Each structure stands twice: as C-alpha cells, then as structure tokens.
Amino acid sequence: MAALTHQLRRFPAALKALRLRRGVQQKAFAIDLGIGAAFLCGIEKGTRAPLDDGLLEQAGRLLELNTDEQAQLRSLAHHDRLVHQMELRGASDDELQLISSALTAWHHMSPQQRTDWLANVRQLADNVVQVSAMTRRRLTKEAAMG
C-alpha cells in the first residue's frame, strides 16, 4: 500500500513546481522556511508529510503565491494527509483510490455542487444497504427452503 499512497500524493509535485516557477532554489527556500534542506527534499519527493499549516502559510508568502495558488496548495496538503491517515488505519488500495479521487473531485466543485454530490452519495449508500439487505433475506429464505 505504501507505493500506492506515494503515487496518490499531490502536494510534493505542486510545491516543487511552484518553487521552481518562482526561481527559488531548494536550499534557500528551506532556510527561509526554517527547515533543513534534506527535510524539504523529502517533502518534495513525497517521502515526508506535507508542510504543516503554519509552514504552508509562510511558504505562500515566500513564494508570493496568489490566493488561488495558496488554496490549491492547502487543498493538496489536506488531500495527502487524509490519504496517508487512511492508509495508516488499514484502508485497502481500492479505498485509498476512492478517497483520493473523491477528495480531488471535491476540491474542484462549487459549494452547490458539493452539496448535490454529497446528497447523491448518501442516497447511493442508502440504496446499496437496502439492496444488500434484500439480497441477504432472499438468500436466507432460499437456504431455509433448501
């Protein structure tokens, strides 16, 4: 699962791309953030967790990110943290891919789209539970009839 989680990480490439677009060297950026260059290298390679919220804010200032870029970077850090936490809790590869895809879609939706989508997902979950229960009852009845 660790290999899949690494593939699902979105934050490392985004941070590195923003840093490079601004022409900032990794070592200088690490120093300005108050972290070690090796630590930042690990973050950008995806072998370390994303920057925490305080360092994310500081990185945004240092890289002179606009509001959209800052929001995107926060969203990607949040995505990676959640996927990692689910991996630690034993989520399967399919579950990790579902969570990653859902989070990615979620962060591209408007508030109304999120509300509608969540309602649809809840309805789907209710329908699946009902169909599953009906199937179990039918199979139990068939087994009893022998």
UniProtKB/TrEMBL annotation:
The lineage of its organism: Bacteria, Pseudomonadati, Pseudomonadota, Betaproteobacteria, Burkholderiales. This is Helix-turn-helix transcriptional regulator. Residues 15-70 form the HTH cro/C1-type domain.
